[in-house]
């Protein structure tokens, strides 16, 4: 299926609004899937994991104005921003990211998250402004249609309860990390966690306030995955980023 033929349906939009995340299958073509995997492997070959390392590994290359960046070109080619815009207000389109995350979960890694967190709070940036963004987009480069394949752990609906927390305590409460719960994450009812699932070539979108954490990986091969942090024009530029996760 061609990237430009995939759209966000009303059912997907409702799931995103109520659950805080949605998985859209069939976004990448086979050629795009192969290219995304090659880009991740190239990045990790240039900056590999330490010998014997197991579990989560992340790299954060930044985009510059000195020339085209293959990760940024992949983000554009995959149509991630076009899909993200269908989950955002029409007057607040997503801005282009200025950095990437390349990550891999190296098995075996049976770690089960004890609780969630919010991104961009620890360590707090030197200017005191949290690294918030509008939504997280994950481009899945390998199959995650079953649990324990490096799936992202999420706590459905927590974006609404976290939003209510900040509405009550004020938006600046996000900077007072010592007043938040472990993670850090607001002290709200989390409910039961779930593992986001879908086939290779899917894209996951998750609300910034959705409780989430890293994932267990018990299969023999590393899970390949891509992620983007999309920021809209309502937030300061430079606080959003794109990434590829493997």
Can you give keywords for this protein?
single chain, 246 residues, alpha+beta, seven-stranded mixed beta sheet, three-stranded antiparallel beta sheet, 10 strands
Summarize the structure.
By secondary structure, this protein is an alpha+beta fold. The protein has five helices and ten strands; from the N terminus they run H-E-H-E-H-H-E-E-E-H-E-E-E-E-E.
Characterise the protein shown here.
The chain is of the alpha+beta class and 246 residues long. 22% of the residues lie in helices and 17% in strands. The protein has 5 helices and 10 strands; from the N terminus they run αβαβααβββαβββββ. The chain has helices at 10-19, 30-46, 70-77, 80-85, 158-169; strands at 21-24, 55-59, 102-106, 135-140, 153-155, 194-195, 203-207, 211-213, 225-230, 242-245. A 7-stranded mixed β-sheet has the order 1-7-4-9-10-3-2. Strands 6-5-8 form a 3-stranded antiparallel β-sheet. Helix 2 packs antiparallel against helix 3. The radius of gyration is 17 Å and the shape is globular. The two termini are 22 Å apart.
- Spatial order of the strands in the main sheet? 1-7-4-9-10-3-2
Give the class from helix and strand content and strand pairing. alpha+beta
Order of helices and strands: HEHEHHEEEHEEEEE
Residue fraction in strands: 15-25%
Mean pLDDT score: 86
How does the overall form come out from the CA principal axes?
globular
Note the main sheet: 7 strands, mixed
Radius of gyration: 17 Å
Give the CA-CA distance, first to last residue: 22 Å
Number of strands: 10
Fraction of residues in H or I helices: 10-25%
Give the number of helices: 5
Low-pLDDT runs of 5+ residues are: 234-246
